[in-house]
């Protein structure tokens, strides 16, 4: 994290029964992963491991959250692992429909 200037960002994570949206001011140069850790969100959800969690900004997945520097107003979204592969589900539905 570099610089004295600060920017406002948000960090969000949601489970079916519990959601959090945390606004925070971070130093310019803060990465997605750093902001997520600074938000304290990891302690609010049992089993959430930020170092391994997929993340994105406004619905677009970011491959390297530890290297993605945030811009003012961006929202870091922490994604849950998929319960089922969407491709497999489509194939399964197509096979059932064909029967």
From TrEMBL:
InterPro entries: Mopterin_synth/thiamin_S_b, RnfH, RnfH_sf. Pfam families: Ub-RnfH. NCBIfam families: PRK01777.1 (NF002490). Belongs to the UPF0125 (RnfH) family. This is UPF0125 protein T9A_02226. The lineage of its organism: Bacteria, Pseudomonadati, Pseudomonadota, Gammaproteobacteria, Oceanospirillales.
């Amino acid at each position: 994290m570099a610089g004295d200037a600060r920017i406002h960002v948000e960090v969000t994570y949601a489970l079916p029964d519990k959601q959090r949206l945390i606004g925070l001011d971070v130093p310019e140069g803060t990465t997605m992963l750093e902001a997520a850790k600074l938000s304290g969100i990891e302690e609010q959800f049992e089993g959430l491991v930020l170092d391994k969690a997929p993340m994105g900004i406004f619905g677009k997945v970011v491959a390297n959250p530890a290297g993605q520097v945030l811009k003012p107003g961006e929202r870091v979204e922490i994604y849950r692992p998929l319960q089922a592969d969407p491709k497999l589900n489509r194939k399964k539905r197509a096979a059932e429909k064909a029967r």
